[in-house]
TrEMBL record:
SUPFAM superfamilies per UniProt: HAD-like
Free-text cofactor note: Binds 1 Mg(2+) ion per subunit.
Record-listed Mg(2+) binding positions: D7, E9, D152
Keywords for this protein: Amino-acid biosynthesis, Hydrolase, Magnesium, Metal-binding, Serine biosynthesis, Transferase
PANTHER family: PHOSPHOSERINE PHOSPHATASE (PTHR43344)
EC number: 3.1.3.3
Binding residue positions for substrate: E15, R46, S90, D91, K133, N155
Record GO cellular component, one term: cytoplasm
Organism superkingdom: Bacteria
Name of the protein in its database record: phosphoserine phosphatase
GO molecular function: L-phosphoserine phosphatase activity; magnesium ion binding; transferase activity
A Pfam family recorded for this sequence: Hydrolase
Species whose genome carries this gene: Bullifex porci
Length: 203
């Protein structure tokens, strides 16, 4: 049996932090895992910026409430879930994800959670486990699943490398230059066709 594991931001929905940066005008918040490979460094930097500007979890959630899935993403995901099992593996947080999952039809998501202080400020992060995307793929494979993994950022590379098959989706130029051997898709049709081929190979 096959399981497809997808990144969330940049694959199915816009980048949350970029949307928040555009709303607040804080350019440094536009940095994502496409730019900084170490997720802890990235999040510590984000939380420091939020504290400097007095921005709370509610401020972020208010922006998330305005975000819509990428064009074609919901249709792609519906079609994919009709063919095989799909799990979203994301380094986002449960406190961010719920309104996005609702718009996508409540797919299964494995993600992390936030620590919030008495003022509603982000004070820390609770990782489900370190390198959780790779470990999720390892766990699924240990249960006898064939796995396909796809994403667009540095934190997706480990799961793509160890999955039975995988690809990049709309990855930025810096990642494409560093990993030219990884397949790339930029349309949902091409993306679906590659996954469909993988599923049929397992029949």
């Amino acid at each position: 049996m096959e399981v497809v594991c997808l990144d969330l931001e940049g694959v199915l929905v816009p980048e949350i932090w970029i949307a928040f940066a555009q709303k607040t005008g804080i350019e440094k918040l536009k940095l994502t895992t496409r730019d900084i490979p170490d997720y802890h460094v990235l999040m510590n930097g984000r939380m420091e910026i939020l504290r400097e500007h007095g921005l709370t979890l509610k401020d972020i959630q208010d922006v998330i409430a305005t975000i819509k899935p990428l064009d074609g993403a919901k249709e792609f995901l519906d079609k994919l879930r009709a063919m095989t099992q799909v799990i979203i593996l994301s380094d986002t947080f449960a406190e961010f994800a719920s309104p996005l999952m609702k718009q996508l039809g409540w797919p299964t998501i494995f993600c992390n959670s936030l620590e919030i202080d008495e003022k509603g400020m982000l004070s820390g992060i609770k990782m489900r486990q370190e390198d959780g995307k790779r470990k999720a793929i390892e766990g699924l494979r240990s249960m006898g699943f064939r796995t396909f993994a796809a994403g667009d950022s540095y934190n997706d590379l480990n799961m793509i490398k160890i999955a039975d098959a995988g690809c990049l989706f709309r990855a930025p130029e810096n990642i494409l230059k560093e990993y030219p051997n990884l397949a790339l898709h930029t349309t949902y049709d091409g993306f679906y066709n590659e996954i469909e081929k993988f599923v049929k190979e397992g029949k």
